[in-house]
Every structure is written in C-alpha cells, then in structure tokens.
Write a structure and sequence with these properties.
Layout (H helix, E strand, L loop, with lengths): L4 H8 L3 H9 L6 H14 L5 H8 L4 E6 L5 H16 L3 E6 L4 H13 L4 E4 L8 H8 L4 E4 L9 E5 L1 H14 L5 E6 L4 H16 L7 E4 L3 H13 L6 E4 L2 H13 L9 E3 L16 E3 L2 H16 L8 E4 L2 E3 L7
Parallel strand pairs: 1-2, 1-3, 3-4, 4-5, 5-11, 6-7, 6-8, 8-9
Antiparallel strand pairs: 10-12
Helix pairs in contact: 1-2, 1-3, 2-3, 5-12, 8-9, 10-11
C-alpha cells in the first residue's frame, strides 16, 4: 500500500487539512508549512491520487487544446510551445484534433469538457462554422483562441498580424525587381487564410503592376504542386509566387524544380509560418516567421488570468511577424 497523506502530515508536523491544501497548491498555507509538506512528500515518495483530488477541488490542473490538424508542422510546434508554458505552471495538456471539420471539432471539444479540463486553448478550424462550438465552451470554462479566431465571439485571442507579414513579403519581392506575382493560398474558410488573401490583394494593389493570378485550394503540399503545375502550363510564369503557408510553398518548390525551373533565378517563391522544414528545403525557403513561443506565452498568460478570477475586458493581441530572407528569393 502506498504512502498516505496522513503520513506526510505527521512527518511535516501539520494537520492533514494543511498537508492537503499545500499539496494541491491552494492558498491559505504559510510558506514554512508548505515547504515542510513538500519536503516530507519527497522524502516519503508520496504520490497523490489525482482523480480523487480533482473530485474534491473541482480542479484537474489540465488544459484542453483543439487544433485543426495535429500532423501540420506549424500546429505541432505550437502545441509544444503551449505545453512547455503550461508545465511551468504545473499544468498538463490534453490535445485533440478537428481535421478541419466543424462537426468533429464540436465532438472533440465536448469530449475535452467532459474530461473536466479547467480551460481551453482553441485553434478553431472555421471562421464561421466554429463560432457556436467556441461560444458553448466559453460558457463552461475559460477559452483563449490562438492563431485562428471565429466571428461573433468576443473573447481573448492571440495571433500573428497576417496582413503585415504578407505586406513584408510583397515589398521584399518588389524591391528585388519582381514585376509579376502569383498568389497560391487556401480558400478563406479560416481567419488566417482570409487575412493573408486580403493582405496580398492590398499589397499587390499598392504595387499595381505586380498583381497576378490568385489560386486558392487548401493548406497542403499537394495543392502547392497542383497550383505550380497550373502556373507552368499557362502562357508565362510570374517572377514570384507568394504562398499562403510553408507547406504550400514546399509543394510549389518541388513542382518547379522537377520541371527544371530555376529558383530563384527564374521564379522566386515565398512561404508563411517558418515551419522546421522551411530552412531545410533546397533552396531554403524565404518565409514569414510566426514567433510561436511568444504566441504561446501570451495565450497561457491570458488564460491563467481568467482562471485566477481577473476581471477585465477580452483582449486581442496581434504579434508582429518577421520576414526571414533565404535562398528562394536571393538572386
């Protein structure tokens, strides 16, 4: 039989109630008593019953997180960043994926809530169809939207300034002498796809002679390949292809190189996100870096403040991205 909390209390010289509060992180315990209890627990190798503690306190020290696709390198590294921040606060992460399907998302969020998560970090899969799911979740637990956001929900959001990032890309290409551009992105079903498309159209309008074809599909390498094939089969290639994310750009790069098109000498290519593979491509991909550690830190900070009872209006934090110039545009 394992060590009981009564034995920890005796070793620390405190009551069982004090030992319980100290081990669960509750307030109202003097610092010296908390230190003695934690030391006694370590000495006795005490392992608390997390399920019983959660039932008593109604707090599980678990945060739920829903993302559109766990296999997407951008979301995978974002999850790691959030998990690292939560571990600093001695909380664990329970992860689910929606597969870009609002109905799957609804079921997954309900499952996370049924597992009694204390709060939810949400990367909603659809700008419109995810609104009800996020709103219903916010009626039960604190919710912070990260990266993507839905219309009609007045809660906390942390993300990158997508339009500013695309403006940096277009200005960079114009400065390199690009006179014709093409945009390959995703249909604007989520907020980032919409913002990047809007940013491209506004930036291209500022350089009127640079505007060119806009091809929309999804955020996948396969779509990048297909779009590049369409561009190569048209009458003339543009000077540069602006891509809605890095996975699209990697598909564009692969298709161009397979057809013998030289990058960047004949066509320049840019991405968005700076996933780990972007720097490993040949040539290395010029892209817009999203500062994921900072995004995660801000999201967890906002979520924690609500969980601790802070009364404040909802906040929307747009973090400025950085343009990373690499071989796919260096001539």
């Amino acid at each position: 039989m394992g060590v009981r909390i009564h034995e920890v209390a005796v070793r620390a010289g405190v009551s069982v109630a004090t030992a319980s509060r100290a081990l669960s992180g509750q307030r109202g315990v003097r610092a010296e008593n908390r230190d003695r209890v934690l030391a006694a627990a370590r000495e006795l190798d005490y392992e608390p019953n997390a399920v019983a503690a959660a039932l008593r306190s109604r707090v599980t020290h678990t945060i739920g997180m829903i993302v559109p696709r766990i296999s997407n390198p951008f979301f995978a590294t974002l999850v790691e960043a959030v998990e690292g921040r939560l571990q600093d606060g001695r909380r664990s992460l329970l992860l689910a994926g929606s597969h870009y399907d609002p109905e799957v998302e609804r079921q997954q969020v309900r499952s996370l809530l049924d597992r009694r998560v204390d709060a939810l970090v949400a990367v909603p899969c659809h700008q419109h169809h995810s609104t009800e799911t996020i709103g219903n979740a916010a009626e039960r637990v604190p919710v912070t939207q990260l990266d993507l956001r839905v219309d009609g929900f007045h809660g906390d959001w942390v993300g990158v300034d997508n339009e500013a990032g695309v403006f940096q890309v277009v200005d960079h290409l114009a400065a390199l002498g690009a006179h014709s551009l093409a945009f390959v992105g995703s249909h604007p079903s989520d907020s980032s796809a919409q913002a990047r498309l809007d940013g491209y159209e506004r930036a291209a309008a500022r350089h009127a002679h640079h505007s060119g074809p806009v091809l929309l599909g999804d955020f996948s390498k396969e779509w990048g390949r297909q779009a590049a094939e369409k561009l190569m089969d048209s009458e003339g290639l543009p000077d540069a292809v602006v891509c809605g994310n890095d996975t699209i750009a990697l598909g564009v790069l692969a298709a161009l190189i397979e057809r013998g098109v030289r990058v960047p000498e004949e066509v320049m290519v840019t991405g968005f996100d700076d996933i780990p593979y972007a720097e490993l491509s040949r040539p290395a991909l010029t892209t817009v870096r999203q500062p994921q550690e900072r995004l995660a830190a801000e999201a967890v900070r906002l979520l924690t403040s609500v969980m601790e009872g802070e009364q404040r209006p909802p906040q929307r934090i747009a973090v400025a991205p950085d343009l990373l110039v690499r071989g796919s545009t260096k001539r």
